[in-house]
């Protein structure tokens, strides 16, 4: 497993498992399987409704808690009570702390008190790192105008077909790690000719190429899967590298309409 060091000094795995659209039972089963396969990053959220299942899998594992990186998120309906929302997430997870707590979605005129509450959770060490999700460059600039703690992570939709290069550079310049959800395009572009040609060249699958592309950019990826074979495939991306030419070929697949703007999915995976 390879890691990226966050601005808090904590190490976050470069590959993890997402749990969106899983109920508690499926999340528990999938996370148990993922941990057995070597995954150490587990992503959930209040919105997903499966924190209990994720927590059972983490607590039931023989792996030391400090070796598992657990992320959950604050949904906008809880913006006026972030402390209580966090406490409720911890209770559902059955954990003493989370490794990363994210503001799940930016909304216009988000009260400054939301981020200040996040900073207090960080200071308490019950959230080892704090960050945001689905934030564009403008969203980050507005937050950083008053934040005293810089977000450690910005989790966004990210793949060669949704390559927000300027946003990646902007986050990097501020010491913010980018994390990719939907790195496999929900399966919609796995048969793209450029991707399959690179996959064939390396003897890898298109999914492995897309995930490796994220790694080449220093971006942590959290593909969602409940299938053990696919989970095994998705984590097997550290034994090969893409050439600079191959990375450039994949970069050029970007289909976003507005250069430099983060593309935000209204539906998550």
Low-confidence regions? 258-269
The total strand number stands at 10
Mean pLDDT: 93
Q: Helix amount, in percent? A: 25-40%
- How would you write the strand order of the largest sheet? 3-4-5-6-7-8-9-10
Give the gist of this structure.
With 269 residues, this protein is of the alpha/beta class. The protein has 10 helices and 10 strands.
What does this molecule look like?
The chain is of the alpha/beta class. It has one domain (3-186, 214-226): NADP-dependent oxidoreductase domain (TIM Barrel, Alpha-Beta Barrel), CATH 3.20.20.100. 38% of the residues lie in helices and 14% in strands. It contains 10 helices and 10 strands. The protein has helices at 24-37, 51-60, 82-93, 112-124, 137-144, 165-173, 193-202, 206-216, 228-235, 244-251; strands at residues 3-5, 11-13, 17-18, 41-43, 69-74, 100-103, 130-133, 153-157, 177-181, 220-221. Helix 2 (51-60) packs across helix 3 (82-93) and helix 7 (193-202) packs across helix 8 (206-216). The protein starts with a strand and ends in an 18-residue tail after the last helix.
How would the blueprint of this fold be written?
Layout: E1 3-5, E2 11-13, E3 17-18, H1 24-37, E4 41-43, H2 51-60, E5 69-74, H3 82-93, E6 100-103, H4 112-124, E7 130-133, H5 137-144, E8 153-157, H6 165-173, E9 177-181, H7 193-202, H8 206-216, E10 220-221, H9 228-235, H10 244-251
Parallel strand pairs: 3-4, 4-5, 5-6, 6-7, 7-8, 8-9, 9-10
Antiparallel strand pairs: 1-2
């Amino acid at each position: 497993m390879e890691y990226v060091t966050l601005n808090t000094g904590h190490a976050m795995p470069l590959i993890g498992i997402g749990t969106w659209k899983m109920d508690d039972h499926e999340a528990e089963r999938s996370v148990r399987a993922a941990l057995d396969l070597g995954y150490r990053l587990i992503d959930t959220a209040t919105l997903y409704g499966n924190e209990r299942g994720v927590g059972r899998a983490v607590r039931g594992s023989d792996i030391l808690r400090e070796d598992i990186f657990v992320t959950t998120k604050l949904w906008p309906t809880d913006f006026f009570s972030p402390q209580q929302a966090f406490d409720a997430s911890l209770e559902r997870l059955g954990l003493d702390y989370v490794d990363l707590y994210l503001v799940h979605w930016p909304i216009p005129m988000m009260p400054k008190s939301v981020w200040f509450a996040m900073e207090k959770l960080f200071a308490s060490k019950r959230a080892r790192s704090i960050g945001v999700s689905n934030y564009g460059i403008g969203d980050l600039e507005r937050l950083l105008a008053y934040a005293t703690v810089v977000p450690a992570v910005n989790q966004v939709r990210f793949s060669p077909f949704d390559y927000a290069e300027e946003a990646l550079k902007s986050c990097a310049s501020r010491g913010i790690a980018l994390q990719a959800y939907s790195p496999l395009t929900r399966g919609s572009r796995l048969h793209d000719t450029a991707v399959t040609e690179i996959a064939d060249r390396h003897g890898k699958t298109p999914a492995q190429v897309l995930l490796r592309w994220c790694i080449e950019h220093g971006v942590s990826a959290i593909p969602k899967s409940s299938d053990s074979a696919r989970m095994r495939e998705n984590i097997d991306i550290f034994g090969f590298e893409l050439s600079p030419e191959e990375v450039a070929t994949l970069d050029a697949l970007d289909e976003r309409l507005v250069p430099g703007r983060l593309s935000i999915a209204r539906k998550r995976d």
